[in-house]
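Retro notes - structure team

What went well: the batch runner handled both jobs without manual restarts.
What didn't: labels got mixed up in the shared folder, which is why I'm recording both outputs here explicitly, each with its sequence directly above its tokens.

Job 1
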Amino acid sequence: MDMVPASAEPLLHPEQCQLRPSDHRRWWVLVAAALLLMLLVTVGPLRPMLFGVPQSEPVALILLTAAQEKGAVCLDGTPPGYHLQRGSGDSSSSWHIHLQGGGWCGTVNDCSNCRMSDLGSSKFMKPIQFTGAGILSSDHLQNPDFYNWNKAYVRYCDGASFSGDAEGQAEDGTILHFRGLRIYQAVIDELMEKGLANATQAILTGCSAGGLATFVHCDDFSARFSHKVSVKCLVDAGFILDVKDISGQRSFRSLYGGVVHLQNVRQVLPKDCLTNKEPTECFFPAELIKSIHTPMFIVNSGYDPAQIRNVIVPASSAPDKSWLSCKDNIRNCNSTQIDVLDGLRTTMADALKVVKDKEDWGFFIDSCFTHCQMVLDVSWNSHNSPRLGNKTVAEAVGDWHHGRTQGVKEVDCKYPCNPTCNSQSPL
């Protein structure tokens, strides 16, 4: 779930490698709403009035054709790609690497379906707009701390959070390439040659499945630099929880189990975790953060609709009509259902206690019904942004990154306590 290619796709990619067919109609209704929001924000009459900057030129796709020789390919065997926008001024040696999200595929059939989209093939990837994209924006008013950095947006086309290294075979006999780890390595290698190696400061970020990838690769990214560099990691909407759904099953653990075993994700998981737990458990952020040493900031909603719809109330849990309405929009939830959703927030807060004493870490867990808050101007740093401690997401992240104040480590009160959530998109 992430950025908009220039083909006018919504900013949030559907978890289409994960959702069952019965969920698609509901998702695309929400996608249409997100697209309307994007049109109003980035190209409609509100854009000049609210932000005062024109639409920027699309950022071209750069394909890593040479990486194919190393087996760094998308699910369908096409070369992976990224978009690069050069920095300027006093940030010409500052680098921001963003890993795109877009769900996971844990079965041969699901991964085969992903081959027919930009989440599995570079044949469908187009140039993208950074305008209106929050932390990726070049608008100094909306993104004062990172607007003029070198920005690389890495396209997601492996279905395993840039972590797998295996092969499979589709029903039609064609080979499926599970090479997310090689893609990550190839992109970082090329960016190092293009100036990343000489960075004075660098940040690795990701949203949703890209956020999970950031957890996985954060320490590796930091270790890439031979000289002293300020390296930090920022994860948005990637703190996926290993909890039971409303039917009492850990259905999302089953999904992750499929990803881990089908795509051979084990090799990137923390060795200290693997000595005590099953590989699937070690793929969840609550375990990953115990082994990460690089400074990190975590942004998430305690009522993340992606987790509500796919972890708490998945289609496999056979929800009744009231639950279907609730997971579409939290305003439709009754008090009993809200109590269940409160458990998501509480579990997230408990899992983050292990980083409470890390001075160089921070987290911003709001109570908004929203997913991926750092890649949209409206939720990053504007009058519509959710606030904790009177800080927007952008202000909290910027203060943490630049050490201006003690890092924010806040978990919001229970829904619907935060009035700054009122204007948030239900996506």
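Job 2
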Amino acid sequence: MKTITPLILLLFWVAPHLVIGQNIDQNRLLTDLRTLSSDAMEGRAPMTDGGRLAREYIRERFESLGLGTQFPGYRQEFVLDASRGQEGLGVNILGFIPGSVSSKIILVIAHYDHLGKKGEVIYNGADDNASGTAALLEIAAYFSKNLPGHSFLFVATDAEEKGLLGARALVKDFPFPLEDIKAVVNMDMISRSDDRTLYAVGTRFYPQFRPYLEAAAGRSSIRLVLGNDGAPGEKDWSKASDHGPFHERNIPFVYFGVDDHKDYHQPTDTFENIQPAFYTAACELILDTLLAMDQKLPSE
């Protein structure tokens, strides 16, 4: 997906006691991550039994939360890229909460697919990206009980590992005018970091999000780095995951992720290797950012 750059544009750290309020249910978050990265899901590759189990798990959760949707059964189907030998259908899962004040949209996305199996070896993809998917479910649960001012669309995308295909299908068949999107927040690999660092990409292009990120960072027990969006001397992650097709349309985004680690795209990317305290803090920071976006982004 990406590689890290040594250049850090902006870094925040505060003492551990100055932390964000606890709005994330850690037990439920970790249960979802464990389930989505279990051997039963067989690595969640598109067009596999494991992938179908994963999306049914997500669909059932959206339904249980009372989320609406613009697609039958919460499923947005799309044709995989036959020109690249990818036959069949991919499936995005969409859940919707209408805004109490504005119909403008904050889009929250995370890809649920991973590499599947190679022979008999399962690539569980705990960090990549069961972590983002479990966070998506937990954030959707929060807003289902604390109704937002803006409309929120939650999308678990398929076939990211095959070339951001689910995100491209979402852009092509978006259920609202694209100009209604005020922000895209993408989560891809957020559950482990040996130096307790989470990265936020996008403020070089969309500086309106910087104050929200700075404020959330100031209340978090982990470090936040803004950058890696193509400034001179640094890597460019601005198209490295499912936010990319939106950025190509100049739709504002923030991408949250961690540095590649030794288990990236390896069968050792398992639940046992995630870092629960860091992961929970990362989810709290992301939720805090979303709350600020909801409160402060224009409603028209």
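One thing worth noting from job 2: Helices lie at 26-36, 49-64, 126-145, 165-172, 210-218, 244-247, 276-296.
We'll revisit the folder naming next retro.
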